[in-house]
Design goal:
By secondary structure, the protein is an alpha+beta fold. The chain folds into two domains: 166 residues, Roll (Nuclear Transport Factor 2, Chain: A), CATH 3.10.450.620; 199 residues, no CATH class. The chain contains eleven helices and nine strands. The protein has a five-stranded mixed sheet with strand order 1-2-5-4-3. A two-stranded antiparallel ribbon has the order 6-7. The protein has a two-stranded antiparallel ribbon with strand order 8-9. A hairpin with a 6-residue loop joins strand 4 and strand 5. The chain starts with 8 loop residues before the first helix and ends with a helix. 39% of the residues are buried.
Amino acid sequence: MILPESFSQEWIQSFRKQKQYSKLDPILLEKMILALSLTEFLKNEGLVFIFKGGTSLTLHFNEPQRFSIDVDIITESTKEEIESIIKTICSNSVFSRYEYDSVRSFSNNIPKAHFKLFYTSQINSKENYVLLDVLFEDNPYKNILSLPLKNVFLKTDGNHTLIQIPSIDSITGDKLTAFAPNTIGIPFFIRKETETITKETEIIKQLFDLGRLYDFVANFEEIIYTFENITIKESGYRKESFTATNVLDDIVSTALLISKRQKQPSNSELEKFNLILRGINKFSNFLSTGSFHLDEAVEAAGKVALLALKIKEKDFTPLPVYDEKVSLKEFLITSTEYNYMNKFRSLPNKSLFYWYRVVNYLIGS
């Protein structure tokens, strides 16, 4: 169980005294701790659910590299049952009240409800909230694990609550569908009558997560099962007929957009790339350790494109891993369409290696 000390200012601020966490945002850390606490409260109240999304990754990785501050769950319970549980939580926990978002909930044919659960921040004494997104759907994942709710940012009594979450491979398949902004994923733009909402930071979160998940992928059949299952569901919600191939092509073209940097073929593509840049800059606030700049985004995009192309080709062989003994000169690209990527050799990472593999798929060699 998560101990109340986890919510204290002393506990939260103590991480900033550690070198690797010296730049973390205590408000975001507090919010993530509260999000994980909400997950535990839901389980303790008897709700049967699957914990998914970015915050669920904190159970896979003991030391999360980024803060994820929302709770995303899938359940076959009803909205009324969820709301009853939320009322109970708000009556006897750190959460004091809640709001149901009637405008966004169940919109666009998606059976999803949105709730805000409010708390008083121990950092600045202001009211803040954790967003709970509830998708009323059956299990779309190939493999569900039962993992203890724990990580380095939580102080517990040692008796860890077990939470149902997708495996690494299943969540990779899910997140790939989210990184398809022109089909079923998080869009670059949501255009309304009076305003245009942009989602650049959310897109970068998917890119970052997928870049990390790449290093832990083990079962491509599991990824494909989840990817295709969610593609069908998301296309159905939108009353579209996007195929898995449509979505995979979208993923690859979005990754290529990042690889081209400022040299985009059209103004519309340049507008999207500039949004990507803005998203990368905003995303820095969500990092608990390390950095994520354009150079890192180029490498992550290469990994994502490679994942997508292997799925498209039904290539179940293990993902390629760079051998430090081999010079990057061995991966220079000869194709005139893609040889601009040879500049990646000067980046402080292995971008060229991944993009070399991508190009081999693209040109059929």
